[in-house]
């Protein structure tokens, strides 16, 4: 008697929470591409939703419009950066100097990402005109600063490493220098090769954090 194949198992239906998480993730992937290509001002919520395969209503059901999408992307990016630095500092088997070098490279990689710096600066500029965006960006900035201070304090806790200012002053100096350079390069058409810009930022880092004499 021929063997009868068992009927295929029905695929397990996603829960409402899983479906919402999938929708949000897809919208964020597409929005990231649109923001990097068109900027905050040029990106269109309806086009983001359409490319992601959802309606405009689905976008607004998950995010507070285009600004809400952008905030979620920035938050996700900052959380990723924090995780990278946290993993470096957690490599306790490495000497403090080795962790410093890995931290230095990862930090300068972020500070030389011109497209993201310019995009974030556009969001900051929008905050000057929009109180809701201002509140959002202040919240993000304060959390990033708190997290950054915690990381730099741990990085420089070793007697082998000298920090020549407070962690807060260090972070502000590095951020302002790299942001100013990125904006100038974008406006002027990248007159300074990226390799040279990176070397300048590395030089600033090395002038502020160094090995103890």
Structure commentary:
- The protein is mainly α.
- The protein folds into 2 domains: 15-63, Orthogonal Bundle (Arc Repressor Mutant, subunit A), CATH 1.10.10; 70-211, Orthogonal Bundle (Tetracycline Repressor, domain 2).
- It has 9 helices and 2 strands.
- The chain has a two-stranded antiparallel ribbon.
- Helix 4 runs parallel beside helix 7 (131-155), helix 5 (96-111) crosses helix 9 and helix 8 (167-188) packs antiparallel against helix 9 (194-208).
- The longest helix has 27 residues, at 16-42.
CATH topology of the largest domain: Tetracycline Repressor, domain 2
Helix % is over 70%
Question: Going by CATH, what is the homologous superfamily of the largest domain?
Answer: Tetracycline Repressor, domain 2
Number of helices: 9
- Record field, number of beta strands: 2
Question: Could you write a compact summary of the structure shown?
Answer:
It contains 9 helices and 2 strands. The chain is mainly alpha-helical and 213 residues long. A two-stranded antiparallel sheet has the order 1-2.
Write the layout of secondary structure elements.
Layout: H1 16-42, H2 45-52, H3 56-62, H4 65-89, H5 96-111, H6 114-127, H7 131-155, E1 161-163, H8 167-188, H9 194-208, E2 209-211
Antiparallel strand pairs: 1-2
Q: Which terms would index this structure?
A:
213 residues; mainly alpha; Arc Repressor Mutant, subunit A; Tetracycline Repressor, domain 2; 2 domains; two-stranded antiparallel ribbon; 9 helices; 2 strands
